[in-house]
Specification:
Elements lengths: L1 E5 L8 H17 L4 H11 L3 H6 L4 H10 L6 H22 L1 H22 L11 H14 L4 E8 L2 E8 H19 L12 H21 L5 H12 L5
Length: 241
């Protein structure tokens, strides 16, 4: 399924989620002003390159590379796919966690995602770019916090597509299974100079999101399940169509 809407309205405007989307778009538009050679040079110099991280793991520039990598994208589909998932699922985590914890959660998930890919291929000279790892953390958090929320989207069937509505645990669970399968299949496969999909970054980010959100729900008092369900659908009734 390609998710397009979740039945999970927020109480507040998700300023951090919208801000992250805006920053990603602005950085990508800046990328479009560069030639292919210039862009590749920027990726090599300003983003996470596993071999370079292993050589200088504690350098300040290495830390900054981790941050910068989360805002670079390799193409329009890369950007739009990531921003769709962040827009759909990030607002509700921000709403529940609050601004400060959500910012920490997002960037820590991105850091751990890159570390996961580096552990798998520490000698790789290929830059790791994209917000996918951090957003995978958001998906893991959403799965823990809102497993039963309905997600609406389309299922492509050749030249046609049909609408479907599945609970979040199925949509996000299938997404993770696909990443895990592709990650295992990709082990030992050589990629080109521009690289491919960093599946283990997705896996690492998702697992980090699961763990952090589980800890959050254990440490921060949560409304009883029935109260949460009543609050959710009371708000959702204002958005029915």
């Amino acid at each position: 399924m390609i998710p397009l809407k979740d039945l999970n309205p927020t109480r507040r405007v998700p300023i951090i989620t919208y801000g992250l989307i805006a920053l990603n778009v602005m950085v990508f538009l800046w990328e479009q002003t560069l030639s292919a050679a210039e862009l590749q040079e920027q990726f090599l110099n300003l983003s996470v390159v596993p071999a370079s991280v292993i050589d200088n793991p504690l350098a300040l520039d290495t830390f900054l590379d981790f941050l910068r990598s989360m805002f670079f994208h390799g193409g329009w589909m890369h950007l739009l796919g990531n921003m769709l998932y962040l827009w759909l699922f990030g607002d509700n985590l921000e709403d529940r966690m609050g601004v400060v914890l959500y910012v920490i959660f997002y960037f820590f998930g991105g850091f751990m995602a890159s570390f996961a890919q580096i552990i798998i291929d520490p000698s790789s000279p290929i830059p790791l770019i994209g917000a996918s790892g951090a957003i995978a953390g958001v998906l893991g958090g959403y799965l823990i916090m809102f497993p039963g929320v309905k997600v609406r989207g389309i299922i492509p069937l050749g030249f046609i597509a049909r609408w479907a509505e599945w609970p979040a645990w199925i949509v996000l669970g299938l997404w993770f299974v696909i990443q895990l399968f592709n990650g295992v299949v990709s082990l030992g496969v050589q990629t080109g100079a521009m690289g491919g999909v960093a599946f283990f970054a997705h896996i690492g980010g998702f697992v980090t999101g699961l763990i952090l959100t589980w800890l959050f729900m254990k440490l921060v008092p949560q409304p009883p399940v029935e109260d949460r369900r009543e609050i959710l659908y009371e708000r959702a009734s204002r958005y029915r169509y």
